[in-house]
Amino acid sequence: MSAPDLYPASDAFRQNARVGSREAYDEMYRRSVEDNEGFWAEQADRLDWIEPFDTVKDVSFDADDLHIRWYVGGKLNACYNALDRHVEEGRGDRVAFYFEPDDPKKEERRQITYAEALAETQRMASVLKDLGVQKGDRVTIYMPMIPEAVYAMQACARIGAIFSVIFGGFSPEAIAGRIRDAASDFVITADQGRRGGKTIALKANVDAALKRLGEDSEVRHVLVVRNTGGNVTWDDRDVWYHEATRSASGACPCEPMDAEDPLFILYTSGSTGTPKGVVHTTAGYCVYTSLTHEITFDWREDDVFWCSADVGWITGHSYIAFGPMINGATQVLFEGVPTFPDAGRVWDVVEQYGVTLFYTAPTLIRALMAQGDDFVTRHDRSSLRVLGTVGEPINPEAWRWYHEVVGEGRCPIVDTWWQTETGGHMLTPLPGAIDQKPGAATVPFFGIQPQVLDAEGKVLEGEAEGLLVIADSWPGQARTVYENHERFKNTYFTAYPGTYFTGDGCRRDADGYYWITGRVDDVINVSGHRMGTAEVESALVLHDAVAEAAVVGVPHPIKGQTIYAYVTLAADATPNEDLRAELRQHVRKVIGPIATPEFLQFAIAGLPKTRSGKIMRRILRKVATGEHDSIGDTSTLADPEVVDKLITGRR
Ligand code: 6R9
Q: What is the per-residue DSSP string for 239-303?
């Protein structure tokens, strides 16, 4: 019997769901689009405001007058909404976090209430103020997945500092670039992180980054949280957090912020140049992440929510540090890795805390699926209600395994399509309302108006495949690229005027369901992480032996895509295995482990270029994937013979 294509939620689930039928969804969606401002004005009641807003929406996607403003005139504080109000309203005893350490044999499990999280956040905020952090200052956060990472983000929000979290897997070079771009005044880090029984030298990486920046650095202090107790080197600018708290006040008031004051900057890769510092602002982001968290996961107060993303990515911002906390959710915060001590760890954690809503990435599902069902079935998963995925398209096979084996056929799967730039979910089934199809992100969230365009920008109706754009704004949308509005405009609002261009391709089927087909630009998605080809190429050419580099993504059974690099060498360099290893190591050092090219081919005869000197990536992709028969027309190449030589040298 072949597997079904349509998976409706069970009647039992529907009866209790927040949005319990397709009709209910249709009705709410219609209202959200037809009376967009009315809909979003009502949703603003989710937050506590210091001063009400006077204009719900002030938006123009027109490139000449590009601006995106929501809840204009309102004043509020994000941290107040995530912490104080829960305590003030009598929810202080509720668990905010079950902290699950990397290795529970060596470290303590911690249970943290909202009242405790508020106290810790105020302490951190006071310390930051004592160090001189002021409203509008940029604070770089480079932390492991420990509660202090969340306190750091919330503490910045509390005092109006703009935080920029850098994923703990990034290298000193990458940290330096982001500190420079944001002109950060302060850094918060930890001595070391722990992952899978290994330690990560976070403080040492910050030291190396600041050394690299030298005179360029405006960093005044580095605040260091003692986590492992491992050795660190010390400098005048460094401050131990535990020492600073001794003299710090236990209370720290919330700074009243304008609705459109920046909340954070988050760097993400694009097709060209260095990573972009995407800016999210206060009110719209808080409304949007809180609403999507509640509706997409059918969240209730007694749920235990676990988002397995790192706080260094947008998913950890929106669905650990903000959306769920604004809703007062109980969450699991996991420091470790899913395969340590064994491939059953995730389900062990689910069992231990009675996780009801689990949110993860397809790459993790595929990696665990490859380890066999026993690791899953030996743990009790009866607490699970809804399963979520994000980060890349999920292949139907992995979807079905997640549904049948992990969720025992009982839990709806929400395949959420969204981006760093969108702030929160854009396309997703609502569990209970939307029948699921494995691999489809299905339908738009409330207020979201997707369109499919052809390459010329013509809007396609009905069943269609093309480019995905969004025709109107939503409160969670990014407002700009930090200190580079021009780049924001050019990247997202120029090619297809009047719309937000997502960079993704998609197909809309006969039922109106959206299927994301992947990036249409030069962005590679490795294990759900965005990597710009240009970034990897610039890292490669930094090496003396490299004359030129071109990088493409090739399919990978677990990671989704993996990096395949072509390199032409400098005249005095010798193409051998040592150099190959050295170059891969070099990229790892320059950007971080996630950017390491899995394959590296020496393009001895050169790269395939048009007569005007443009590298034809289409050909490089075909060679890399072994599709030599469908390379297509090579007549526009300056030297068509390089193609055969590339095929011979394929890795
Ligand atoms: C949240 C996040 C965004 C890119 C996006 C798309 C891909 C994310 C997806 C998905 C298919 C899904 N993507 N979710 N593709 N189905 N459910 O991942 O943000 O790191 O900025 O990546 O990821 O290609 O454009 P970000």
A: EEHHHHHHHS-S--PPPPEETTSEEEEEEE--SSSSPEEEEEESHHHHHHHHHHHHHHTT--TT-
